[in-house]
Every structure is written in C-alpha cells, then in structure tokens.
C-alpha cells in the first residue's frame, strides 16, 4: 500500500469515526407557563458538565420575579437575562446564590439559565436542580431590584 493510500484511509477513518461520536448539542430553552389561577411554577431538570439549561418566561413591565434555586450539590448557579439578552443577574456573584428578586424593566421574554461551576463540571458530572418561580405585580410603593 502506498503512503498516499494510507493517508487517505487514515483521514477517512478519522472522519467516519468522528461522525459516530456523540456531539454536544446545546439545550433547547423551555418556556415556563403559568396557569390562569396561579402566579408561580416549579421547573426542574438535570444539568451536565458545562451545559446551561435555559428557561424562558414572558413578563410585563413592572412585574416582579422571585427565583429560588434548589440543588443538593454545591456550585449550581443561574443567570437572568432581559429580552435583549443582556445579563441582569448572576447568582455566582451574589452573597445569596440560590435566590433572586427583580423587577421587569421592559415587557418581553426573560431567560433564566441554570449551570454548574465547580471541578465536577470538567468531569461531565450531572446535578439535579429545581427552580421555584413566582411572578407578582409590583406593589404601589414600588420595588428596587
């Protein structure tokens, strides 16, 4: 077998073998719906390795959003993004990384994304989480984020 044929076989094997490996696909955002009689919801899931699990919910301007994140493992955090995609809160930078309360500054779809940030992340380990979300109208006295 010639050197050129060996290289072609090797390259083809690498391409074919790479196609068999599972590829990492980003998680699809799940939309959080509130039933007409309630203003809260509980969503849960499992985060693996470095992935982020996004949840979207529609808010009207002035509505207050309360988030509580529960997990048995340490290093589970979340971010909150406004409708433009700008990050308005990072729980990893907060003294209370498992909860947040904020007010919608504009109407639209807000995103909460849960992720891991600890050594287990690099090993691809999983962690279960549960988010308790409550939406309420802003009080007449006002609310500061």
Automatic annotation (TrEMBL):
Keywords on record: Signal
Source organism, top-level taxon = Bacteria
Q: Where is the signal peptide?
A: 1-29
Name of the protein = Proteinase inhibitor I42 chagasin domain-containing protein
Organism listed in the record: Acetobacter persici
């Amino acid at each position: 077998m010639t050197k050129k044929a060996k290289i072609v076989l090797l390259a083809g094997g690498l391409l074919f073998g790479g196609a068999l490996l599972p590829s990492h696909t980003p998680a699809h955002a799940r939309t959080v719906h509130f039933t007409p009689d309630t203003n809260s919801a509980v969503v849960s899931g499992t985060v693996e390795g470095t992935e982020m699990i996004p949840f979207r919910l529609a808010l009207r301007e002035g509505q207050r959003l309360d988030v509580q994140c529960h997990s048995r493992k340490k290093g589970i955090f979340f971010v909150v993004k406004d409708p433009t995609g700008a990050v308005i809160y990072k729980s990893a930078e907060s003294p209370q990384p498992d909860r947040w309360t904020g007010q919608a500054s504009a109407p639209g779809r807000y995103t909460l994304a849960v992720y891991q940030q600890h050594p287990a992340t690099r090993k691809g380990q999983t962690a279960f989480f549960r988010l308790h979300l409550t939406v309420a109208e802003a009080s007449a006295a006002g609310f500061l984020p």
